[in-house]
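Section 3.1 - Work completed
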Amino acid sequence: MDEKLKQIKQTLEKYGQEQLLDEYNRLTDVKQKQDFLDSILTIDFNQVNNLYEKSKEEPAFANSKIEPIDYVDKAKLSKEQYDELNEIGTKEIKEGKLAVVTMAGGQGTRLGHTGPKGTFDLGLDSHKSIFEILTDILIKAKNDYGVDIPWYIMTSEENNKQTEKFFSDNNYFGYPKQCITFFKQGKLPMISTDGKVLVDEHHKIKEAADGHGGVFSSMLKDGVVYDMKARGIEWIFIGGVDNVLVKPVDPILIGLSVKKKVEAAGKSIVKANPQEKVGVFCRKNGKPSVIEYSEITPEMAEEKDESGELKYGESHILCNLFSIKAIEKVSKMDLSYHTAFKKAKYIDKNGQLVNPEKPNAYKFEAFLFDAFESLDNIAILRVKREEEFAPVKNAEGVDSPETARKLYRDFHGER
């Protein structure tokens, strides 16, 4: 028996994943068989088993002490406060200490779009894609501060080539090519309800992106952290691709972080209503954290403070700033994985494709905000929804191209 195959067989038997050999034996193409074996070798089956066991556990927050967290309202800063923070942040930006990371590993499937989400045409008269809209923001910052801000774009195995080609075909939308770096998001196997690693319809290990919390380990693995250090970067803004009103170059957020001497900061907006399905900033067992809407009780969601505002009303909008020291620390840590129960096509033991009608598989994701719990403190800057948050997530209704387009037009005056 081939030594590689023998080694893999022993590993699969040890972890109860022998079903993968059934798929290997069904394959007839030699290269496909070798690629399949190679993909098995990349799997940490001990991690897979631990994740499966974790899927049976109740969320740990149930035994945690949850408290509100302090924040600074950007709109309520006095002129003196605003000017002080602006001066501090502007100095950092002009000295070339800021980089921007955009997480763009997703496809535009939910929008009815066949390519990477960033290539989606928002529907403006200019027909700008989301990527071009984001580039415009950095070009404006270049003009305002006189520096080229390094831009790191996290793609995925599925959309990396398309994304790089899109930028190349559009001459990087006028932004310096040498300032744009692409790197790839990590993936984890999807497993069945009995803990078996699944095979997808293309006869490959079925994998899913490891969540936006995977950005840190991907930055380390692909050399992004080292590149940032070589460029003298000290602050990194991390945001998602789908917010067309994002302000990644914000001297107030940077100034607040420097003044408060914190390693990270996040922007928040007030929840639209107590039931809005968003994670909220809080303190968990004394540490800064974000609690998901599915984890907060109805009573906590409705609770108000002395001023009549929601006690847990600071929505996390995936607009975060980290120091390079925090990135280095977190990138070497194992963040917790959260379990999602999803519908997943797979090849069964008889080699037949199964297309389930209801959820049948576990997907595991790390959340970026779990990194906060490894830090002593963070700064929260409350901003206005109409000025900084216009997500494009759903084909219609809430957070759709229609709502994002209106918010974008109202703010920029661009049709």
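Second construct:
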Amino acid sequence: MFVGHFAASVAAKVAQPRLPFWACVGAAQLLDIGWGSLVIAGIEKLRLNPALPGSPLDLYFMPYTHSLPMALLWSLLAGLLAVRLWGRIGWWIGAVVFSHWLADLLVHRPDLPLGLFNPKVGLGLWNLPVLEMIVEMGLLGLAMCLWIARRKQARLGARPATGWYVAMLALAVVNAIPGDPPSPADMGMLALFGYGVAIAVALLVDRADRRA
């Protein structure tokens, strides 16, 4: 799952409009931002296997970002930081961080450690790529409908939110383009680039809303 994670970002923004959207977007991918950084550093490991159905990722070692205990820890730390910045509504940021692990549980093959290393779980929706994409885009699309309705109630234009959504769809299309698998380090860098784009465009949404 890639852009589907952002459904939680949008849902948090709908529930708590005072939260900056860039923080909601970054929170949804915080675990993967850490993962990409640790893959580049050679600490967490993956293999790319084009023979696998759906995603070619064989994520065989990522205990520090995607194990259940560490996902809970990162969610708690992010929530505490967000509370310091934005008050009690900051706990929504922690919830968005943890939503990433829950969404991964749905789509990943068994590669998410319940302990720090084992046993590993995953319901494997990646093995049904068409259904996985329907679920992913459906969740984000539903969240966007709720957000645009909320924006209209607040007399905010739909264009900034729609522009961010179109940018995410473009990233999803680029991510789905077939080609030779990159190296693990390149995979980590590509992931960080994609998340950086998502956060940067979210900052533009926040800027447009402040002007409005």
